Amino acid sequence: MRKILLSSIILLVGITFIGRLSYLQIFSFSPNQVLEDPAIKAVYDYPERGYIYDRNGELLVANQPAYDVMVIPREVKPLDTLEFCNLLGIDKERFVSQLKKARVYSPRLPSVLVPQLSKEDYGRLQEKMRRYEGFYIQKRSLRYYDTNSGANVLGYISEVNEWDLERNPSYAAGELKGTTGIEKEYETILRGRKGVKYIQKDRFNRDIGPYKNSTLDTLPEQGKQITVTIDKILQEYGEKLMTGKHGGVVALEPATGEILALISGPTYDPALLVGRERSRNYSKLHYDTISKPTFDRSLLASQSPGSPFKTLNALVALQEGAITPETTIHCYNGFYVGKRKRGCHCGGGSRNLNSGIYLSCNAYFAGTFRKIYDQYPTSAEAMDVWEKHMKSFGLGTFLGYDLPTGRPGRIPNKEYYNRIYGEKRWSSSTIISNSIGQGEVEVTPIQLANMTAAIANRGHYFTPHILKKIGAEDISIPEFTEAKHTTIDIKYFEPVVQGMAEVYRKGTAARLQIEGIEIAGKTGTVENFTRINGVRTQLTDNSVFVAFAPVDNPKIAIAVYIENGYFGSRFAGHIASLMIEKYLKGEITRGDLEKRMLEKTLEEEYAKPYSGQPFKINERVW
Amino acid sequence: MSVSGKSVLKRLDWFSVLIYISLVFIGWINIYSSTFTEDDPSIFNFASLHGKQLFFIGTSAVAIIIILALEANFYERFSSLFYIISLAMLLGLFVFGKTIAGATSWYDLGFFNLQPSEFAKVATALALAKYLSDIQTDIKRQKDQMISILIILIPAFLIIPQPDPGSALVFFALIFVIFREGLPLYYLSIGIMVILIFILTLMFGTIWVAIILGLLLALFLLLKKPSFKVPIIPVTLIYVAIVLFSLSVNFVFNSVFEQRHRDRFGLWLRLEKDPKKLEEIRKTIGYNTYQSEKAIESGGLFGKGFLEGTRTKGDFVPEQHTDYIFSTVGEEWGFIGTATVVILFTLLLLRLVHLAERQKNDFSRMYGYGVISILFIHYFINIGMVTGVLPTIGIPLPFFSYGGSGLLFFTALLFIFLKLDANRLNELT
């Protein structure tokens, strides 16, 4: 027994060790060891972020170098602090506290002492840097904007947060990433791919040479430049006109769906979110809850479309055979919903399709709307048809454009009204407000522009998009290059387009004609309400305008939505007209019109609900 | 002499020799890797540690030739003398010793630091075999048991104050030799019992040890044959003794042990229940073991390749070329490498048991067991520590770890036995 005991123990210990080793080396082994290994440090080489150009090849966004002064606290030798602080342009207290912070973080690893020096400071400092041991200058690349407009559409880049890190392992802490706008949408193209060098470290975290003779290292891949569909001149001009006004302006090229301008007012200079002052500026913008400059109204403001929506109701009525262009409806300075009379500004009288549109007659469209519903045995069936037609214009749903934010707007359907009123407890009269673009229907400015483009094209549209070229290559994304057809036959568009053209000739926008350009448009004056201390309060009407030009070969379709701008022909009509002229002619012939738009602001109007005082609405401004 | 010289090579157990050579070779490869720097890749640089180890390997080869050339009965005849010399050398350390890393364990011979505790292992194994194989010794006699245990304890107690508790512990392994020769089982039982109660007390506390033991006793009383008379008083006394011992464990642990010892046990037995704190302890107090475990783990199945161990290159495992050399094997050669080393040690030890059992001469057999005990305890504690199975006790891996005295005397330990084995047939003629 004693003889075999020792052999047994030896065998048992051998088996135990093999078991333990297989647990460690086979079961606990993680294949990501290069990333988890404390002895290997990955040093990244960041490629330059791709530039962004406008549709005419004008530079919008490039890069600029910034210089961080770094410190490795352990290597700092006694120095002339005062002189060094003068060079850095900081005071001594700040220097001492920053140095202390760096030492607490790690005495052996570099920390930022002074971030983002200007080029001038860098120039002065560079040659003297050798004298200060433990300090060095590290170059970083920041965004440079060759324009002071387009902040929301271009977007900005910022450091990745923990959520990004968790979701996407290709980011490392401290890296920059497109956070909004084009920068976010085309992040992967603009960013390129970072290169990596693996460095062997010892336990004090000192470099002791390349890992595996650099065989695993990769070179950075340059970010690609992109060309966007924005017209820099038009964008800048539009933003200038929008000074002091809240709202969205969207201009599209109907033949392609390319977004020519995407303006949200108020906006800000994109350069504010770059450099040393970035976080201070960001909070200032972010916490401005009245004008909300970071809220992209052109994509996100979902509001009643108002009268421009009448054109679609006309098209649906024609398609459904509910009216012909000659059908007349009499306007008694308004129309009745049950016993309640709703007003009309058209002046009254007998209206057909043409005059209904150019005089924007509410009674005519209320009647037309009823006629659509009278085609079907039940309101629910009519509603289904109406909804199908409306949605074919890209309303009530996300349009599918290539920008990271948006709203679907709302085209109400029978389920919606059943929920509110109960099944069969509503009729065309209940929902008659939709006939004139009030009521439950809601659109965003870009949807409004897209709908106008569809009319300009007489029945189809291309999904609005912002990307034109990657590098030198035109995009070939079927989603953007293939036409989407509406459910309305081509032949029904011409009468509506003619009505819209009359708007400029003798209708609501007669004073906004442009010499030599035939425009089709539609004004909108939208009642709107807000809650002040829980009380529903009416505000000055929103000023809305859609237009396209030239009528026969549309080059531009535009939607302008100005909050509390009163009549559609005022702010919105003016801005639309000026922008069309700017885009088609390249210059403005009507200086008085332009001057008025640049000078008049609506700040007073926007301050009213916050004044705490009773206020008047729909005041005459000029 | 010339006749026996020829026969010694013929009768030498080449199987053991081959494993010995493999272990020394693999060991040196890994020492080379763990002390390698890109600036100086040369092998024969005697200023570098791997160069020095190569010199020690050469010295060991010379020692092997001398050991095999000497008469076999030389070792038996002079074993008492060796033992006395080794004790004198251990005593001499108190006066002339050189202190390295806090332990006064070396004589400075200029070109070489001699560690007498390594020599004492060989001498004690020889002396113990000599005493036990003496015709006048009867292991059944209590007095002879005590003397043989004393032979082991004297060098151990001389080594403890160096301080080198690890090396001292090795001598206790020799008790196994006495046990093999007939030491009553209860010695071993008491030993195992003491260790078990020590661990159980630390893990569950004295109260639970007392309760569980009481329940077991009650169960035994219920299930025993009615005819079996229980000696009430001795059983009660043993029970009380155990509980008292358990109480003393708490006292010793809390008052006699130093904090670092407490931490080691705390880590080993996972006394800290909060997983976050445990992880913290692993990375601070258990730093060495943590790093070596991680290095071994990162090797995976096939390892990172020779000279490719990133943690080895980064010096993440402290003392990697000495006590933690096995972690280099783990990182660079993977499971294939570590399993090979474990298998080689297992084969060598089993082979030595076989050789010991076939000895006709009592002295040779007992010495053989001494060799096995010493090699086994080193191998067991070292790999147990490096893989995180056992608490940290710093002793080298035989034939593997860097160190001149260690390699030389482990070689002597083994080859004296191989010489005795080669000579076993001559004894009869």
Automatic annotation (TrEMBL), chain A:
The keyword Protease applies. The keyword Transferase does not apply. Gene3D superfamilies: DD-peptidase/beta-lactamase superfamily, Penicillin-binding protein 2a (Domain 2), Penicillin-binding protein 2a, domain 3. It comes from the Bacteria. Keywords: Carboxypeptidase, Cell membrane, Cell shape, Cell wall biogenesis/degradation, Hydrolase, Membrane, Peptidoglycan synthesis, Protease, Transmembrane, Transmembrane helix. It is found in: Cell membrane; Membrane. Residues 46-207 form the Penicillin-binding protein dimerisation domain. It is a single-pass membrane protein. Residues 247-576 form the Penicillin-binding protein transpeptidase domain. Pfam families: PBP_dimer, Transpeptidase. PANTHER family: PEPTIDOGLYCAN D,D-TRANSPEPTIDASE (PTHR30627), PEPTIDOGLYCAN D,D-TRANSPEPTIDASE MRDA (PTHR30627:SF2). This is Penicillin-binding protein 2.
